[in-house]
Amino acid sequence: MTSSATGFAAIRHPAVRAFLTARLASILGSQIVNVAIGWQLYERTGSPWSLGLIGLFELAPALLFMVPAGNLADRFPRRNIAACAVTGSLIASLALMMVSWFEAPVTLIYFVLMLIGAARSFAAPSIGTFLPQLIERDLYVNANAWSSAAFQFSSVAGPALGGFIIAWTGTATWAYIAAAVAQFSFILLFLRLPVIRPAANAAKRKFSDVFAGFAFVRRTPIFLAAITLDMFAVLLGGAVVLLPIFAKDILHVGADGLGWLRAAPSIGSLLLMLTMTRLKPFARPGVVLLAAVAGFGLATIAFGLSTSFILSFACLFLTGAFDAVSVVVRLTTEQMLTPDYLRGRVSAINYVFIGFSNEFGAFESGSTAALFGPVASVVGGGVGTLVVVAVVAVAFRQLAQMGPLNTLKPSDSEILKEEAAEQEVRHSV
Q1: What is the pLDDT of residues 323-341, one digit of tens each?
Q2: What mean pLDDT is reported for the chain?
Q3: Which of 25, 67, 90, 288 is positioned for an S-S bond with 186, CB 3.0–4.6 A?
Q4: How many CB atoms lie within 10 A of CB 169?
């Protein structure tokens, strides 16, 4: 770790515990929906293309709403925006339940996926930037480890629970109902958190402020390197979307086995996240990040070549463990380098780079699987990930030279802007 705060330091704060509980419920619902949609589409179509289109239909709203979502998170209480966004996800879960119950045309699922994509686009920058408003900077790394652990716990429980419900009932209907209950729980829990209004910028707003997040990322090479590395690694290493094919046609383990395969990366991430809450600072986090993404690529290749359920589970477990390291380093780098008045806009960009590279990666994996087969798609993605690591290491030498995360800070100009914004708020009170 990269801060003196370890162990339970962050979660001693009541607001942090409430935030993590709400986040756990939200991710649980999202993961149940993910596994249910994949199972339902492949059962009804038998086509890898149908799985690849999941990512494409979720990606389109992300690109459309990225800029307004980030700006809203920097101008209005993030708690309220997050609650409204997850309400959209709740409505989508209920709509999917109706599609499943009445066996409505598959086309309707893709329309609902666009609603899910829009809701997640607004939720991500609001939820992702809310935690730094609750704690001091020296707690960021510890809090991120616990937040990621909560995420991964839900990512373990969600697919396993979704797969169990589908296997038990023989339909995705009840899985969508369970997801809706989890999302409703998030809304109730999140609305109990304090309303924190982002500090207003002391300078007069200009049209260019709308795109200030892009300018910040462009002039911050360490952060740009980190998100570029993760974006292409996730884009190329998207084996998860093809798990229904591996579960049914290669490993022959059915819906229950699919749930455990979906949960395997999250189990690996969860265990490593909990370990990281006890570790000392990484002296060279940039080098650690490069090594972790390379490990992710190697584990992806091994999964693609495996015909054993146990070995496949182990490989997916390792992809999650390596990804856990990447997430903490990248997320803490973003929080340490970004002033609060820009966090919503920068987080929205990060969400598209990282979060929705999952969705485009799903389309890429589904497309290549349809053309060349699932094994070639996964193995090729793992090889591509290793190539990306090599390219980023050469193109962004600052990443390998980066010091401990707790030593990072915004540039002097960004600090002055943030202090001016805080003074403006104090003078207006």
Answers
A1: 888 878 887 787 788 887 8
A2: 81
A3: 25
A4: 11
Distance CA(70)–CA(222), nearest Å, equals 21
Q: What is the pLDDT of residue 313?
A: 94
Q: How far apart are CA 182 and CA 82, in angstroms?
A: 15
Residue 161 and residue 163: Cα distance in Å, rounded? 5
Cα dihedral 318, 323, 324, 325, rounded to 10, equals: 100
Q: How many residues can be counted in the chain?
A: 429
pLDDT greater than 80 at residue 180: yes
In a domain? residue 1: no
Structural domain total, the chain: 1
Domain assignment present for residue 41? The answer is yes
What's the pLDDT score for residue 396? Answer: 85
CA angle 249, 41, 303 (to 5 degrees): 40
Our measurement of the distance from residue 315's CA atom to the centroid of its chain's CA atoms, rounded to an integer in Å, reads 20
Range of the domain at 361: 10-428
Residue 190 tokens, joined = 């999140």
Q: Is residue 3 part of a domain?
A: no
Question: pLDDT, tens digit, for every residue of 346-402?
Answer: 877 777 766 656 666 766 777 787 788 888 888 988 898 899 899 988 888 888 888
Is the confidence at residue 249, as pLDDT, over 60? Answer: yes
3-state secondary structure the chain: CCCCCCCCCHHHCHHHHHHHHHHHHHHHHHHHHHHHHHHHHHHHHCCHHHHHHHHHHHHHHHHHHHHHHHHHHHHCCHHHHHHHHHHHHHHHHHHHHHHHHCCCCCHHHHHHHHHHHHHHHHHHHHHHCCHHHCCCHHHHHHHHHHHHHHHHHHHHHHHHHHHHHHHHHCCCHHHHHHHHHHHHHHHHHHCCCCCCCCCCCCCCCCHHHHHHHHHHHHCCHHHHHHHHHHHHHHHHCCCHHHHHHHHHHHCCCHHHHHHHHHHHHHHHHHHHHHHHCCCCCCCCHHHHHHHHHHHHHHHHHHHHHCCCHHHHHHHHHHHHHHHHHHHHHHHHHHHHHCCHHHHHHHHHHHHHHHHCHHHHHHHHHHHHHHHHCHHHHHHHHHHHHHHHHHHHHHHCHHHHHCCCHHHCCCCHHHHHHHHHHHHHHHHHC
Look at residue 62 and tell me whether its pLDDT is greater than 50.
yes
Asked if the structure places residue 24 within a domain, the reply is yes
Query: Which CATH number fits the domain that encloses residue 195?
Result: 1.20.1250.20
